[in-house]
What we know:
With 78 residues, this protein is an alpha+beta fold. It has one domain. Strands 1-2 form a two-stranded antiparallel ribbon. β1 and β2 form a beta hairpin. The radius of gyration is 13 Å and the shape is globular. The N terminus is likely disordered.
Amino acid sequence: MSHVHVEAARNSSSAMDGHKAKIDHTADFYMEDGFCVFTEKFLLKKESCCGSGCRHCPYDPPHVKNTMKVREEVLQNL
């Protein structure tokens, strides 16, 4: 699957709606369609962004490797 197709699947409303119901905010990850999806809780433990395009990237700006600043809405929900 090309990067473009992955981005389209990641950003589609049906994909986003479907995963919201599955998130256990106490868990580090959940499985979706055979893929491990890391939660904000787990990604915060890493202390910086990996730059891999994680769905629940808590950093600002998201998906930028080595970013350490946490998004404001994430901080509010801790």
